[in-house]
Structures are given as C-alpha cells and as structure tokens.
Amino acid sequence: TYLPCNTPEPLRAYREDELINLRGYGSGMLKEWDRVYDYALYNDLGSPEEGRPVLGGSQEFPYPRRGRTGRRPNKKDPNIESRLLLLNLNIYVPRDERFSQVKFSEFVCSSFNSLGQVLIPEIGAVFNKTINEFDNLQDIHKLYKEENNLPDSRPLRNTRECLPWQSFKELLHVSGGRPLKFPKPDIIKNDETAWKTDEEFGREMIAGVNPVIIRRLEEFPPASKLDPKVYGNQNSSMTKEQIEKNMNGLTVEEAIAGNKLFILDYHDVLIPYLRKINKTKYTRAYASRTVLLLQDNGTLKPLAIELSREQDDVNVYDPISQVFTPSEHGIENSKWQLAKAYVAVNDSGYHQLISHWLNTHAAIEPFVIATNRQLSVLHPIYKLLQPHFRDTMNINALARHTLINAGGILETTVFPARYSMEMSAVIYKNWNFTEQALPEDLLKRGVAVKDPNHRHGLRLLIEDYPFAVDGLEIWSAIKDWVTDYCSIHYETDDMIQGDSELQSWWTELREEGHGDLKDKPWWPKMQTKDDLIQTCTIIIWVASALHAAVNFGQYPYAGFLPNRPAVSRRFMPDTQEHAELEKDFHLFFLKTITAQFQTLLGVALIEILSQHSTEEIYLGQRDTSEWPKDEEKEAFARFSTKLVTIENEITERNKDQRLRNRNGPVKMPYTLLYPNTSDDSKKGGLTGSGIPNSITI
C-alpha cells in the first residue's frame, strides 16, 4: 500500500501506465478480455420503437452512469445502443468484474430452476376455466412445497455430494423437496393467515423488506409539496374524526406533540405519473397515504389509508380521493383489506425501483468505475473499497439486459409498467449522497432525533425499530473500521488534500459518475479526514448492509405475493360491485391484485434475487488473510469481532418477547442485518440473513 507521493520511484511509471490502460480511450467496442472502465448513459434499455427515453445526460431524466460496452449504435437511432439477443449473456464488463465460473453456474441454474417453477402452473392454467387467474388462496398455497413432507435427506445429501459441479447440483435440485415447486416463504411458514393482520401490516414498514420510507407525521392533515398550479390541490382529505376514533383516547394534537403519528406516503411521488400508469393495459393504481399510531406496546397501529387517483377529465387536476379506516365486519372490512393491498402495491413498486435498484445497484456503479479508473491497486482507499464492489457491474449489466429493459421482467411485474425506469430517473433528482448515511436518513425522516445521551448520538422515536436498531450497530462498526484504517494512512488533512489520485477520484465521481447532480451543494469537499471517513463509510454501508436489508428479504416476505402484491388491476369496488365482493372476498381480492403469470414470474424473480451464493464473502470476512500492514490486520480483526458481537445481540433481541416488532404476528425473526461474519459454511441459498460485502445475488 502506497499513497501516490510515497510510491517507490521505480514503480511510479507502472502505477500511472496501469491507470491509463484501465481508463481506455473512450471509443470502440470492448471485448471480454478487456480491462477498461468507462462511463455511458442508460441508452441500452430498448430499441427506438419501444419508446423508452435515454436516462442520464439531461435535466429531464438524470441518472447515474453505467459501465460502457462500446456496442454499436442502433441503426435507426444513433443515440441508442444496440442490444444483444435475449439469451446472449456475454455482456461486456471489465474481466476483473465478471462472475466466477461457480457463481455464473449458480446464477444460470437457479434461474432455470425458478423459471421452471412457472411452467407447471401455467400449463395447468390452460385447462382451467379462468385462464391466468387464481381461483382461491389455496391455488397459491399449492405453489409451495411442504417442508414437513420432505423425503429422508441423507441419501439426497449423499447424492448431492457425489455430483462434481455446482451447476449440476443446482439444476437437478436434489437438496430435498419436490421439483418445480417454490420453497415455502417465511411469511406463511408458522401461520398462514397472520400476514393479513393490521399489526403485521404496520410492522413490515419497520422490519420488512422496505423499512426505509416511513417517516414521522408533523402536520395533519398531511400536506402535498406538489405545485398546485400544475397538479391542483393535492393535500390530504383525511379528517381528525376519521382517525381519532382509533387513537386509544389521544387527540391528533397530542399524538403529534408526543411523536406518536407516522406516515407511509407515496402520494407525491406517484401522482405526476398516475394518469400515464393507469392508461396501461393491466394497471389500475392509486397513490396512497397511510397514517399510523405508535402504541404504548411499541407496535404501529394503522389508522387510515387515503387512496387518490386522477380525474377522468384531463382538465381537472384535483384528485379523486377516498379514505378507509379499520373495520372488522362486512363490506367495510373487505374494503379495508383491499386498501392495505393497494398500499402494498405502491410499496412493492417503489421498493424494487428506488430503494433497491436506484439507491443501491445504480448509485454504486459509478463508484466502482471511478475507483478503478483513478485509484491505483496500490492505493489504500482502493484496497479498502474494492471488496465492496465485487460482482456489482456484472449483476447490473445482466439487469439491464433482462430485468429493467423495455418489456423486461420488471416492467411486466410491477405497477408502473413501461414508466418504471423513467419514473426512477425523475425520483433520482432528489437523491442526496450524504443522506445515504443511516443516521442522516433517520434524522431526515424524523424517526430519530439527536441526543448525545443515547447510543450513537441518536434517540429512535420508534424504539423497537428492528432495521434502525440493528442498522445503527452495523453502521457504527463500519465507521469505526474505516476510521481506524484511514488513520493508519492519513495523519493530517493536508495529506488528504495532497493525494492526487484521491482528489481525481472524487472529482470524477461527482462530475462524471453522478454528473447530472454535480452542482449539488451537498457533495463532501474531500478536504479533511472526516470527509474521507464519512464518504467511505457511506459507500460500504450502501454496498453491504443497506443492499442486504432491501434485497435478501424479498422472497421471505414477498414470495407469498398476496402479502406484497406488485400490481393492482381494478379500482376499489363501487356500490354496483358490492354483491360480488360480499359473495367471495378472496376471489375478488385475487382478481384485483397481480394475475397468475405475473405472480409466478415475480415470485421466480425474487427467489433468484434473494439467494446467497456459495461463494459469498460476508461483511467482516475477506477472500485473503493478507494485509500490507500489521495495523490494518489488527483493525480488521477488531471489526470482525465487533460484527460477531452484533450477531449475538441480534439473536438476543429476537428472543425478547417485549420487542413485538422483532418477530410480529407471523413469528418471523428479523435477521436481514444479521452479519453472518461467523459463518464459513459457504452453504448459500434462501437464508434470509447475512450481509455480503458487496451488492450481489
């Protein structure tokens, strides 16, 4: 490890030449043997006929940059990059970023397994009286294999061990259970109906797969920030009378003053696109607001859901809004259950597009590119960050090829459909690097306040907030490790300012990698050691823990799609449809949410995304035990030890019955931020726990 100024003289020319080679020449088609890192716009998502805009390079649709492939432009539009055939997975990424053979075999074979599980129900549906529809909830339960009916596993284990290649092991699916059936998701393992409860609905906002959106409500009724000249009056139509009847004797004013009211709000982000979205063939969606009360037992109690949609008359901007409140009987109960489903649709789409794809995958890729272009392999910050970039460029390239492309799996399975990526670009306008730090995020959302007398200097207003409680421990451990490491190499702020590679890295990252936001005032200046420590901590947090929190719980929570539907196909029933609703609520519910094929495709997708590789390297682990300096080795050992301590603390918290949000009515412990540092088994699979070093699947 050498800073540029300390590099031995004989090595300096080689150090500089290697960086020049890694940057390439900015043109020409790149081949699989190349090691070139360069930037490109998201102009590779579809053909001109498919009508998707180029993302990045404009104020209308800004976006992080991706890795350049150099593929030829489309013949009909030189601004669009030509695409490979769908089954051609040989997409250029720098060869150091490519999957290993084992990893690629696991990915392909798990994909075949998951997609193969779509075929049997679809073939059966051809002979069903209701093609592409589930007739009842039992039809969905039949998709899953029953764990208590598994055959004796010893001969199966022996067979598996005799197979020479991981790919054949995966393809033959001999780990137990019936082939061509999905594993039973954790959400229904212990109780098949608890997912329907209001308590579980609220719990998943702080301990589910998207626990990063809920915020404290500071005014009532909730107000919109949309321009009324453009969108009309978008303020909430909720009234005190609608929510106070369920507030355990509190008034709205008392609850706001006591930090007891919270909101899950998708209204403003969806309203600008809702008319377009609802013109697509299969989607009938709302923009939702959900208000919740923090109760004395620590749980969140849903008080009201407001569903808003566009007027039929395009010249009228004020929305059509309905407010639904909890009810236990009759039509009102049925509508309340449907209202929660419409909220889940909003949450599922936003989670997949923003919390998961944009804020982790897409946001980190420019850091991967800039680090390899500007920081030598000898640079200490390169050595610090490089493990947290493993496989990310390869995964993102595959995602652009089959997942987020025009007509791809994401457009097929989430409610914004063809407007998915375009909408994510509009939301990226408000992305802020410094707010990706967990403490800053919690403060911004008002779910924590600064308090020097509390651990980490923050007091959580929802004390039993599993993501935040576990996350702050992980954040603190990462920051301590980064602080120790950076202090070994930088004694003064002058050394930061005088590090030519570091300054070039940070300049390029801002001006090229996230160039559409380069003029934002919130970018760290990279002039002090504190700037460097905070920046590196954010990068590692996003690439490891944040991604783990929003990715690996997808199948455990959403593998049973009624719990987290991703599409709604009809609006809330009017009085003419009440008879149909009363006759068979579950059938009406299933005809409202995602259709059968989209359900199966969505479940297959998240099964693939939620699996850990057998090659996984978890936070606090390394693929080599070598360190250039003893001080680095000792600091990393302290980091690993701290993470193992956190594992034990998480296990104890999950056993504490006073912390009702740790397990919830579904009896599903929160383990998405369990580091797994102590696990060297290399088992992989759907574990629902473990923080890999990098954004990986």
Short note summarizing the structure:
With 697 residues, the protein is mainly α. It has helices at residues 9-23, 101-126, 137-141, 153-162, 166-172, 198-207, 228-231, 240-244, 252-257, 267-277, 330-374, 380-385, 392-402, 409-413, 420-428, 438-444, 466-489, 493-497, 500-513, 529-551, 554-558, 578-583, 585-592, 596-609, 630-655, and strands spanning 39-40, 66-67, 215-216, 261-265, 287-294, 300-309, 320-324, 448-450, 458-460.
Descriptive overview:
This protein is 44% helix and 6% strand. It is mainly alpha-helical and 697 residues long. The strands form three sheets. A five-stranded antiparallel sheet has the order 3-4-5-6-7. A hairpin with a 7-residue loop joins strand 8 and strand 9. 45% of the residues are buried. Mean pLDDT is 91; it is low at 148-178.
